[in-house]
Amino acid sequence: MSRDPDGVVFPDRREPPLYRNQSCLNNVAIIRQSIADSRRHCDATPKSAWACTVHCTLHNRDTRNMTLQGNGENTRNCAVGGGPIPYFRKLLLCLVTWLAIATIGMYVKLKSTARYPGTCAGVIGTGDMSGPCLSKAEKHILEKKLAHAENHRKIIMAWDGEKYKATYIRPAAAVLNRECGSCVVTTNNTLMRSQDIASVVINYQSVAKRHLPSKKFRKPTQVYVLQVGEPPPLMKKLGRFNSYKSINRMQFNATMMVWRDSSIYGPFGSAWESRQNGRRLLRQRFGDDIKNVLTSKTKLAIAIVSNCKVGGAKIRLALVNMLLDRGLRLDTYGRCFNNELPRSDHKLHSSDIIFPYKFYLSFENTFHCKDYITEKFFSNALSNFAVPVVWGAAREDYEAVAPPNSFIHVDDFKSAEDLIGHLNYLDRNDEAYLQYFRWIHMPRHHFPHHNRKYGYCQLCRILHGINVDDAYSPSFNASHHIPLLSEKVYPRTIPKFQELVDSIEPEGCFWSNDEFRNASTDSIASRAYEVT
Fold first, then answer.
1. 3 state SS of 363
2. Domains of the chain by residue range
3. Which residues lie closer than 8 Å to 141 by C-beta, 6 or more apart?
């Protein structure tokens, strides 16, 4: 037996191998100090009551317990912290509790991120251009779903698709690629009776003509989608709908529209696709050097307009004529100028027609109607290295979908002369002009919604329980009721169509002559219309 400087008795000072374990030595030191402190405050207590023997017992290679044995007539527990529960039991209880809490926390977090993944740059629900950033686990789930989709193809019916050749009405490919979910798209209406049809896409023109599939063929599991390629004010004024009753009777599950917060986003194009098309053309013709494009830009501006008889189309024509009258060097094509393109050249994005021009007048037939930006901007202008001069949607709508610094907005100028002067300046200054094409070499993450899938591609993913593209919607928020990765196809419903239109269309969306005339807008277009 030996005694330490404070008088505490220890049975063995030879320090067996166990004492050479650092953690055990630390525990012994702590207990020694605790006992010494207690002894100094308890001089009246019999000495034997505070003489403790410390035994470190090795139960196995990985588990160590410390047993404290007191002796004397007033034996007390000398463990650090005191109490009737031995120290190792407290430690074990704390460890089990911590593991339980950690497990529950990880489970809750995993469930939360599976539904509402974070964004790459910002917070979901703000219209963030980056969309969702999936974790490794979520990416693994997504990959498994896409692999499963390859072997379990869904069939989408593009109702009356043979009548409408535009790619925004029906996809160019009969089988969508793997990233979209590998769906098969058919335009054969006679297949409606097939049990394999997972979704039916009906264009608004078919609804207007009352040419609709029979309800007796509809199955509860099918997703019926209303596809609209025009702003609702235009549809109403053109008389394509006498009322919205025919739409409401169909009980559509989703909409495919140009609005960014449509249940299925259906734009006329995208910034990233325009970049890819333009880059391909650049490499083929000019060796990937944007400066070489200037050698082919021999003309200033072009406008192609074939609709000029109704509503906003008249305002558009008045604006084009004003620019011509004020001296803009502009070549005009289309029925409105008695210079219709030959049928063989009617594919407006043909580079042979547009490519020689520095600027393309991308004027829409509506004014400030939300997100209404057509192929004039994406296919005709951007893909052919013609800077789009835009009018129609508001600037913020263009900025939400366009490559950075890629367009000129008419509303930014006080007069037609100011606009023409700016175009002439860019014509003389090559460096300033080429600044509008810096986006052609920008990496993908600089482009708005660069990973967003839309149209038939988004629909196919929805049919396989892949709803991650919903996170790009400006109206998406944390209370979104559809999981972004789900095991089933969640039902999607839309309100009565008139209510939907009223909730989405901004107050300043004008289409008719009277609406535009009565609007208190001090713009070039309004002054152009006053002249007519």
1. strand
2. 2-84, 136-268+452-494, 271-450
3. 114, 485
Question: Measured between alpha carbons, how far is 304 from 374 in angstroms, rounded to an integer?
Answer: 13
Pairing type for strands 2-3 and 9-10 reads antiparallel
- Matching residue, tokens 């207007």: 208
pLDDT, tens only, 225-248: 988 888 767 666 554 555 567 777
CA nearest neighbour of 311 among 255, 240, 377, 246: 240
Q: Which of these, 489, 470, 478, lies nearest to 132 by C-alpha position? A: 470
Q: What pLDDT, in 10s, does the model give residues 358-375?
A: 999 999 988 888 899 999
Per-residue model confidence (pLDDT) at position 478: 56
Q: Please, which residues have CB within 8 angstroms of residue 186's CB and are 6 or more apart in sequence?
A: 155, 156, 157, 158, 161, 174
409-452 pLDDT, tens digit each: 999 999 999 999 999 999 999 999 999 999 998 888 888 888 88
Residue 193 φ/ψ, nearest 5 degrees: -80, -10
Cβ-in-10-Å burial (0-12, 13-18, 19+) of 478 comes to exposed
**Between 3.20.20.70, 3.40.50.2000, 3.40.50.11660, 3.30.360.10, what CATH number should domain 271-450 receive?**
3.40.50.11660
Q: Where are the beta strands (DSSP E) in 412-479?
A: none
Residue 459's alpha-carbon distances to 157, 176, 445, 462, in angstroms, are: 11, 11, 23, 5
Which residues, including other chains, have CB under 8 Å from residue 195's CB and lie 6 or more apart?
A: 219
The SS3 of residue 222 is coil
